[in-house]
Amino acid sequence: MKIDFIINGIPKTVNVPENMPLLWVVRDLLDMKGTKFGCGQAACGACTLHIDGDAIRSCSFAAQYAQGKHITTIEGLSSGEKLHPVQQAWIEEIVPQCGYCQPGFMMSVANLLDKIPNPTDEEIDDNITNICRCGTYYRMRKAIHRAAEIKKGNRG
Amino acid sequence: MFVFLNIENKISKHHPKPSNTLASNIKTRSGTPPESKLYMEKKTINRRGFILKTGVGVGVLLGVGVVACGSLRRTIAQKVDEGAAGFKNEYEAYIWFQLQPDGRMILHSPKVEMGQGIFTALAQIAAEELEMDFKNIKVVHATTNHGPIDALSTGGSLTIPSLYQPLRELASTMREMIKINGAKLMDVPVNTLTVKNSEVIGAKATITFAEIATKSTEWNLKIENLVLKSKKDFTVIGKPIPRIDLVPKVIGETLFGIDSTFPGMLFGSVARAPVFGAVFKNAEAGAAKNMPGVVKVIIEESFAGVVAESRVQAEVAKKALKINWIMPDKLVQQADVDSLVKVGVGKDVIIQKEGNTDLSHDEGTFTKEYYSPLGAHAQIEPNGSAAFYQDGKVVVKMSTQVAKITREEVAKALKIEAENVDIQSQYLGGGFGRRLQTSHAIEAALMSKSVGKPVHVFFERSEEFQNGVLRPPTHNVLKAKLDANGTIEALEHHTASADVAFNSAILANIFKPLSSSLAESVVGADFGAWRGGMIQYKKIKNYSTTAYHKELPFKTSWWRGLGLLANTFAIESFMDELAHHSKQDPLAFRLKHLPDDEKGRSIKNVLNSVCEKAGWGKSLPEGRGMGLACSIDVNTPVAQIAEVEIKNGQIKVKKVTCAIDPGMIINPDGVRAQTEGAIIMGLSATLFEEVRVKDGLATPNAFGHYAMAYLRDSPEIDVVLLASGENPRGVGEPPIGPIGAAIANAVFNLTGKRVNRIPLQSHFS
């Protein structure tokens, strides 16, 4: 079926089977590789992107439901040259190792900060349930708090 | 143009002469060391060739290959235990520099970046001798058609220890070559010039690397009196420079193996064995060939699959294939695994023996057993390849830890020469040993050949569990006898595991020059499995370690640290048990059994450091326990203290303090990152992870069901860096050693309950 949506500010039309996961539309048809495939079962969060302001695990989201929506991927998280506070914090804390899971984490965290601007450790634990195998969690937690500070305009 | 330069023995400090302690300690079951000439050879021959390629518009390429014989033959066992720069046999690690016309340098790395930060460390080492700004060095993965490439693998925590010295020599040679050409262009004597910040500087004039690169027509490889910078003059090495791949990874730009594409690429899906032991016999296309999007049904000798326009179409069509599998006589069950991997079962080899340790009939022997389960690599990037076969040649883009082996396997499957296969390594979304097996490259290449277009193939997550490789389970038995003063008189360690290094393509590469029977007499036991299994408490008069090996009816292989986590869990839990049993402080108990040699002192050093930092012996808040453990792997000693609490039946590791001594540190932030990562990965394995086998299936086979550490499980981590050596030692794996025992010992300290079986959490909830 024909599906229209706006991705990172750009209108797109794709013609795909209605149940094709949005992840493969983004990766294979639009050739945007920042959104990752990890498990295909919405269990690891590597494929997280934003749809109309919600963090969505796109491997388990049928393309048909993206009709008319605004999608943001890691490639569109920054505004032009200016990095998103989460990306800025990720750089300052030197979070990534292999880096594969990181776009999904950053998209999840960006969304968390939109909803809870100054999350407690407990709120972070409850809301950030992606998986990182390199074990960058310790730095991630520091980066999440730092991102909240940057976003509030306390610095940066 | 190729120019070979022999600089034999000019600078050969990077092969430290290993002490020969273990060789005499290795005995076969009959009690005698293997008497082969090879085995006795002590001399390290060190040959090195520099290769120069020049061409219009590319600036200059300079490469180094490391080929040395001898050290491996002496004793592979010692090399594995001590790490260092071993494994030089048939080992070609070509590093290439490419000076570009804009003055920047490209370093073609034979080792792959899988998160461990080596690209950053290699750039730092290079920048130091090249006298270039770190930012002007770009590191890329070498492709296999660029000439010889690392014959072994990226792994074993060996990259930096093995490349540190050759890379410095190469960089230094390159700098001198640039300087000589700068002198010619400025028409001044070379000895009046210095090099700094990508410029060759004379008394009256300077010339940039860029200008030299564009104006030079000839390059002189004959560098006299190459002198390497002394450690005290380092300005780049030792600095916590943010990793080179940081920004691309944060903006989502980095491409990993599975992200690889070719224009016009199709998508393949392969039918994989439904249970352990099932073997592909043949297949019929059935309804698959007429399904939407299907381009071709592929039936090869060893597999069947479908190529389609989209991967969803390929997946759906694959299910319609009619495949005949040769099924195993009996489906494997967990009980089979438990009975095969057991001390006393399988081939046994004494890998360490001092004095007399037969405690089997001794009264008053303190005996304990420990277990670890099957585990998954669970790297987040599933394995995937994009291959394009054209005119008898194939290009494969993918994540692999063994580019050369992958290349040979693809060549063999396609019946073409290896020279016609170009493996283009991409960034790896985690490695941990999983990418030593790269069958998907063969599948993609064969499919591409069959349809005449590029094809992408990947593993579903469930296939990663069922059709990949697993970390083998382990069983350890420890026995000890204490004297009246609470000193260990005798210690026996028995360690059982399935294949780690055995049955791997890498092992075949290591032993290429040796016959397999000789290889077995040299190694005896699976050295991957017993890594970390040697007793380091060598003040004990009588001690021994025996390894038992049994193959399982499915593939098991290397995992981060190989046997290190499980063996250390056993030995260091046991030391803790002995200390408590004899009412001694676990720190003092360890210290008094460590010898006063270099290795022993280095372990004492990290033990004392970690205890001082964490406040060992201080009174803890109510509800908190503390546990200590240590290990030494690839010569890097590590000690850790875990602090745990238990709430609602959940073990919470609140804090881990770690002291690590990797010799010389190239990048302190990189060492910290690796240490933190190893601690969290080890914590995840210790508390949560377990694969069980049921009716020939790995269970669970999905994320979420396979319990792993999440952000909420991550402790505060405090890393103390010690740097006591002249050369860098391995970092990627050593810090995974002590974490299991440190947590188990802390749980005992808190609850009085001793858990001798990983995963620990399953004994509480």
Question: In short, what is this structure?
Answer:
With 156 residues, chain A is an alpha+beta fold.
Topology:
The complex is a heterodimer of chains A (156) and B (765).
Chain A lengths: L1 E6 L2 E6 L6 H8 L18 E4 L2 E4 L12 E3 L12 H8 L9 H14 L5 H7 L9 H16 L4
Parallel strand pairs in A: 1-5
Antiparallel strand pairs in A: 1-2, 3-4, 3-5
Chain B lengths: L2 E4 L30 H4 L4 E10 L5 E10 L1 H4 L1 H7 L12 E5 L5 E5 L8 H13 L6 E5 L17 H28 L7 E3 L2 E3 L4 E3 H7 L30 H5 L15 E5 L8 E6 L9 E6 L4 E5 L2 H8 L3 E5 L7 H7 L6 E8 L11 E7 L11 E7 L2 E6 L4 H12 L6 E5 L13 H13 L3 E4 L2 H7 L6 E9 L5 E10 L7 H6 L5 H8 L18 E8 L14 H18 L4 H8 L4 H17 L10 E9 L2 E12 L2 E11 L7 H20 L4 E3 L2 E3 L16 E6 L17 H13 L14
Parallel strand pairs in B: 5-6, 10-20, 18-19, 22-23, 26-29
Antiparallel strand pairs in B: 1-2, 2-3, 3-4, 4-5, 7-8, 8-9, 10-13, 11-14, 12-13, 15-23, 16-21, 17-18, 17-20, 21-22, 24-25, 25-26, 27-28
Can you describe what's shown?
The complex is a heterodimer of chains A (156) and B (765). By secondary structure, chain A is α+β, with helices and mostly antiparallel strands. Chain A folds into two domains: 2-76, Beta-grasp domain (Ubiquitin-like (UB roll), Roll), CATH 3.10.20; 85-152, [2Fe-2S]-binding domain (DNA polymerase, domain 1), CATH 1.10.150. Helix content of chain A is 34%, strand content 15%. Chain A is built from five helices and five strands; from the N terminus they run ββαβββαααα. Chain A has helices spanning 22-29, 85-92, 102-115, 121-127, 137-152; strands at residues 2-7, 10-15, 48-51, 54-57, 70-72. In chain A, a hairpin with a 2-residue loop joins β3 (48-51) and β4. The longest helix of chain A has 16 residues, at 137-152. Chain A starts with a strand and ends with a helix. By secondary structure, chain B is of the alpha+beta class. Chain B has three domains: 3-243, 2-Layer Sandwich (Aldehyde Oxidoreductase, domain 4), CATH 3.30.365.10; 257-328 and 383-458, Aldehyde oxidase/xanthine dehydrogenase, molybdopterin binding domain (Aldehyde Oxidoreductase, domain 4, 2-Layer Sandwich), CATH 3.30.365; 335-375 and 470-763, 2-Layer Sandwich (Aldehyde Oxidoreductase, domain 4), CATH 3.30.365. Chain B contains 19 helices and 29 strands. Chain B has a seven-stranded mixed beta sheet. A six-stranded mixed beta sheet of chain B has the order 1-2-3-4-5-6. In chain B, β4 and β5 (105-109) form a beta hairpin. In chain B, α4 (118-130) packs parallel to α5 (159-186). The model of chain B is unreliable at 1-48, 66-91 and 512-522 (pLDDT under 50). The chains are: A alpha+beta (156), B alpha+beta (765).
